[in-house]
Amino acid sequence: HYSTFNKNRKESTIAGAKGALGDETPAKVIGGNFTLMIEKTEAIAKIGTATIFANDLELSGDTGHIGVGINAAGGKASDKSINGAFNHTAIDTLARAELSAGSTVDLSGKLDADATELVTQIKFAGAVSVSNDTAAGVSAVSMNTTRKAQAQINSGSGGTVNVGGKATFDALSKGAIIGGAVAAAKTSDAPPTSGASGVSSSDTASGAGAASPSGVSQAASSSSGGLAVSGSAIVLVEDVDIAAKIKDIGSLSATDIDLTAIDKTTKVFVAGAGSIASSMQSSTGIAGTFVFVGGSKTISALIETSNSATTLTGNVKTKATDNSGYFNFAA
Fold first, then answer.
1. How much is the pLDDT for 156?
2. What is the DSSP letter of 212?
3. What is the C-alpha to C-alpha distance for residues 294 and 235, in angstroms, rounded to an integer?
4. Which DSSP string do the residues of 241-281 spell out, in sequence order?
5. What average pLDDT score do residues 258-265 get?
6. How far is it, in rounded angstroms, from Cα 10 to Cα 32?
7. Distance CA 32, CA 71 (A)
8. DSSP 8-state code for residue 26
9. Which residues on adjacent β-strands are paired with residue 222?
């Protein structure tokens, strides 16, 4: 299921024929860019309660998705420039390979149950604001992920599985989640308007010419300073469940019985913000960044029973590993 919502908005208001910069720069600029992506995916390979006589039995449930998003907003104004960009992604995926624990299975070869969850998300947001008085730029990237990979014997009880070769159950999550958010704001005095060099004799006689230095406009000399504010944020909240499991089977025999659950995903987040406030009068610049990563993760390789005993024959190996990486940068 895919649902995408995009909203882009930009408003400009021009006060007077020309802005303070002596061109068509508007007095006020407001810009916004917003993207929402919601995705739910399930890949399920399942055999219910059945009787199977075969050479090999392979069950494979794989999910794989790539998402790329870029949001940008910016504007220049003589008075106020306010711009923001926001990108939100919500992902819910399930990869499952399952054999019912109530089945009767006789194989001369091997049993493979593989579940792989692959995620690749690359999301960026940026905002830039420039003004002679007040400038504000804000950007944010947020992600909410629920990811499950399950390779298992489950659902039912009391069945028998005889395998001539190996029986393997592999659950894997891999891929990369990359997010970037940058914001910048700048304020400065308006440059002098033309015409200041031509001073009349009456102005000189009255002392007006001496009051204002040559090349400095009245607008510049009366500047009250500026305010530049910028901020960027990245948030990831994840719920991860990776499981290789044998549950409630009556008996399972094989040369080797291997259960492996691994998380190999990599997360990289970069957030940056900068504010420049330069004025002949007092000016203020404020910048900040925020990165948050949280949630829960369960990686398990289990052999368990609810009611009756389970008999396993062969070399048994269980392995649960977290090889994921988190890299966060903020400036």
1. 85
2. S
3. 8
4. EEEEEEES-SEEEEEEEEEEEEE--EEEEEEEEEEEEE-SS
5. 97
6. 6
7. 9
8. -
9. none
Q: How many CB atoms lie under 10 A from the CB of residue 53?
A: 9
Contacts of 54 (CB under 8 A, 6+ apart): 106, 107, 108, 109
H or E stretch at 311 = strand 311-322
| CA-closest candidate to residue 257, choices 239, 245, 271 | 245
Residues of 141-176 as b/e, b for ≥16 C-beta within 10 angstroms? bbbbbbbbbbbbbbbbbbbebbbebbbbbbbbbbbe
Residue 14 phi/psi, 5° resolution?
Answer: -105, 120
Distance CA 72, CA 183 (A): 10
> Tell me, what DSSP letter sits at residue 82?
E
Between CA 49 and CA 67 the distance in angstroms is 37
pLDDT of 218: 47
Distance CA 49, CA 52 (A): 10
Q: Of 59, 43, 173, 168, which Cα lies nearest the Cα of 116?
A: 173
Bin 225: left if φ > 0, else alpha if -120 < ψ < 50, else beta: left
User: CA 185 to CA 283: how far, in whole Å?
Assistant: 13
Measured from the Cβ of residue 4, the count of other Cβ atoms closer than 10 Å reads 11
Q: Are the C-beta atoms of 83 and 9 separated by less than 8 Å?
A: no
- pLDDT winner (highest mean) among 25-29, 58-62, 275-279: 58-62
Task: Give the gyration radius of the chain's Cα atoms.
Answer: 32
Residue type at position 118: L
* The pLDDT value given to residue 15: 31
**CA-CA distance, 261 to 174, in Å (whole number)?**
11
Tell me which residue of 97, 98, 95, 96 sits closest to 117, measured CA to CA: 95
Percent of the chain with pLDDT over 70: 81
